[in-house]
Amino acid sequence: MRYLIGIDIGTSGTKSGLFDLDGKMLSSSTVEYPMYQPQNGWAEQDPEDWWKAVCLTLKEITRDIDSADIAGIGLSGQMHGLVMLDKNGNVLRPAILWCDGRTAAECQQVTERIGKERLLQITANPALAGFTASKIQWVKNHEPWIYEQCRHILLPKDYVRYRLTGEFATEVSDASGMQLLDIKNRCWSEEVLTKLEIDKNLLAKVYESPEVTGRVSTAAAEETGLCAGIVVAGGAGDNAAAAVGTGAVEDGKAFTTIGTSGVVYVHTSEMAVDLQGRVHTFCCAVPGQWHVMGVTQAAGLSLKWFRDQFCGEEKNTAKQMQVDPYYLMDQEAAASPIGCNRLLYLPYLMGERTPHLDPSARGVFFGLSAVHQKRDMIRAIMEGVCYSLRDCLGILKEMDVCVSDMTACGGGGSSSLWRQMLADVFRCDVCTMVSKEGPALGAAILGGTAAGVYASVQEGCKAVIKKDSVLKFCEADSIVYDKIYRIYQKLYPALKPVYQELELC
């Protein structure tokens, strides 16, 4: 029997999955790790934690098979993170993550050096605090001694690739989020690099997602329990991999994912750019094609934050019942009515990207009164995330990007309550797939394509991806959500000047 492996290096943890060639998950393992916030709005991780998690999960999922039967490996991961290595391949500083908001001044610097319009023409996106280019500039400005030692700049999943194969490589979907790539031509932009004074030799070679980027090295085989020589594909950023894992690889196919961040993603064979820079256009995992997506910075992260800070009772009860704490939180939220007894939540714990592009924005419970209970706050978080994702969907429709088929995935997508909220807030039916593995499955399909198991990414999806259930939106509930959403839309404009004042305190 032959197998495929998908490794998803997320923000909360790494999940590795072992799949057969029909896409059935045979085993999986997840290892969590911490995120550090040395200052308000900062977010960092130790890349060694990712590698340790990869080693542990790979050993776990392959313990009952002969790893010589593994045909290929694909990688998926959190995007935009900055990993800097010295000449010996050693990590120079903690990785600065996608949700880190420290680089407002550097974003202005990037915009001034390249020009706002030219930056959009080349990279299809405005300068954002989450993107890698501004992080590199921050290190140059604030830690020049680190930058002087830097010989390699990698993204999180590409650091894992380096540890697996010894190769410095990336691929177009993840590289798109660095703001150093010419999105139309799918290569590093000489103009951007020159104007930002970044040596191209620091960057990895760029591949398409289903291409072979290396093979498991002897050293990595010893650490992971794999056989040396297994093909490792380019893989994809987490959202592009999730698109493959949900079959969103053709025009009009879309998905909404609620992971640490939230995303509304639409595949397109024609490059489309929002000239206001509110949504992102990146290369996708299908060679020669693109995707457009809006991002909510703290979607699942908002609920995780609330769980960790205020739901100790639920966590203890869940442990005794041997269920996930989110299962109990779901039940509590379901006991609160739509609108949460007039309580709204803005999910801006880590600033925001779509549609506000504001690293100074912060989370808000609005309308809080003595009548509210924990269940109202839980539901308000879930509804607030849906409203933020509706902001994303609305912009895609303004761009005339066709959305004909919506799928829900990610951790939040496993909640039928949250999926129903999405359907009612979006006013469209929302389906799920038989496999709930998303990025890990997508990475495995890319690994199989690189290994020649599938003739193309689309053929791999046709062989593997199957629809499961469809949730119909409820017109009566949609009318109620519409009314609350109109109030939600007024809150950020009202608070924007206060956010900026708070930033100066």
From TrEMBL:
NCBIfam families: XylB (TIGR01312). It is an enzyme of class 2 (transferase). Substrate binds at residues 79-80. It comes from Ructibacterium gallinarum. Belongs to the FGGY kinase family. Residues 256-451 form the Carbohydrate kinase FGGY C-terminal domain. It catalyses: D-xylulose + ATP = D-xylulose 5-phosphate + ADP + H(+). This is Xylulose kinase. Its EC number is 2.7.1.17. The active site is at 238 (proton acceptor). Keywords: ATP-binding, Carbohydrate metabolism, Kinase, Nucleotide-binding, Transferase, Xylose metabolism. SUPFAM superfamilies: Actin-like ATPase domain. GO terms for biological process: D-xylose metabolic process; xylulose catabolic process. One of its GO terms (molecular function) is ATP binding. Catalyzes the phosphorylation of D-xylulose to D-xylulose 5-phosphate. InterPro entries: ATPase_NBD (IPR043129), Carb_kinase_FGGY (IPR000577), Carb_kinase_FGGY_CS (IPR018483), FGGY_C (IPR018485), FGGY_Carb_Kinase (IPR050406), FGGY_N (IPR018484), Xylulokinase (IPR006000). PROSITE patterns: FGGY_KINASES_1 (PS00933), FGGY_KINASES_2 (PS00445). The record marks 8 as: Important for activity. Residues 3-245 form the Carbohydrate kinase FGGY N-terminal domain. The gene is xylB.
